[in-house]
């Protein structure tokens, strides 16, 4: 899926970080022709090539409490702030023989920055050693083996004391497609016509 005007992406720091930028004004909507639709929302996805594979990124924004009332017809203005990330996040968990568990915490790999109508989410894909960021190793997997990374943020809405929006960032990592195995044969390598008993061998 190509980049859309509603959701753009770019890589920074030599591919170590993926930045998703959502423009709420472009695709704030309700589901068309859906009698069960309960609220207006934003949800867009893009696909990006990365390290021989592919990352499918999605950003979704839902109002809380939601609804199809007039106040949600227009996209909400979120309370803006600079880049923000969770201070600590579980990086590694080690179970010891005595039944205890060691938990190593570190800075989270995902941050969010907001202007009134735009949401920018940055995910550190690789660590300083250019290996997969430790926090990304704790992603869940689809049945087909694809890894899934997900984060949720809750942000205040300008002018609405009791309203907020939940922001979801989701990345699905599709591994590189392995080329088919090449059948190697001694006879094909040294006898162009095939095996000696083959009718296809030419002299």
Shape: globular
Q: In total, how many domains does the architecture comprise?
A: 1
* Count of individual beta strands: 12
**Treating each run of at least 4 consecutive H or I residues as one helix, how many helices?**
2
Which regions are unreliable across 5 or more consecutive residues at pLDDT < 50? none
Strand order of the largest sheet: 1-2-9-8-5
Whole-angstrom Rg: 24 Å
* Average pLDDT level: 78
Percent range of helical residues: under 10%
Q: How much of the polypeptide forms β-strand, as a percent range?
A: over 45%
Cα separation of the termini: 53 Å
Sketch the topology as an H/E string, one letter per element: EEHEEEEEEEEEEH
Describe the fold and architecture.
The protein has 2 helices and 12 strands. It has 203 residues and is mainly beta. It has one domain. The protein has a 5-stranded antiparallel β-sheet with strand order 1-2-9-8-5. Strands 3-4-12-11-10 form a 5-stranded antiparallel β-sheet, with no helix packed on it. Strand 11 (147-157) and strand 12 (160-174) form a beta hairpin.
């Amino acid at each position: 899926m190509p980049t859309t005007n509603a959701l753009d992406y770019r890589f920074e720091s030599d591919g170590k970080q993926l930045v998703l930028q959502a423009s709420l004004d472009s695709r704030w909507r309700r589901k068309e022709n859906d009698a069960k639709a309960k609220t207006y929302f934003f949800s867009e996805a893009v696909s990006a090539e990365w390290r021989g594979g592919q990352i499918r990124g999605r950003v979704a924004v839902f109002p809380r409490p939601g609804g199809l009332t007039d106040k949600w017809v227009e996209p909400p203005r979120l309370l803006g702030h600079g880049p923000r990330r969770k201070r600590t996040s579980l990086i590694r968990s080690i179970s010891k023989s005595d039944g205890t568990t060691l938990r190593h915490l570190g800075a989270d790999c995902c941050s969010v920055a907001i202007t009134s109508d735009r949401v920018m989410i940055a995910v550190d894909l690789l660590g300083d050693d250019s290996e997969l960021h430790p926090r990304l190793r704790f992603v869940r997997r689809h049945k087909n083996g694809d890894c899934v990374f997900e984060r949720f943020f809750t942000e205040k809405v300008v002018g609405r004391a009791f309203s907020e929006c939940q922001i979801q960032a989701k990345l699905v990592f599709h591994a590189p497609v392995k080329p088919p195995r090449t059948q190697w044969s001694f006879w094909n390598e040294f006898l162009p016509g095939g095996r000696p008993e083959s009718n296809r061998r030419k002299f």
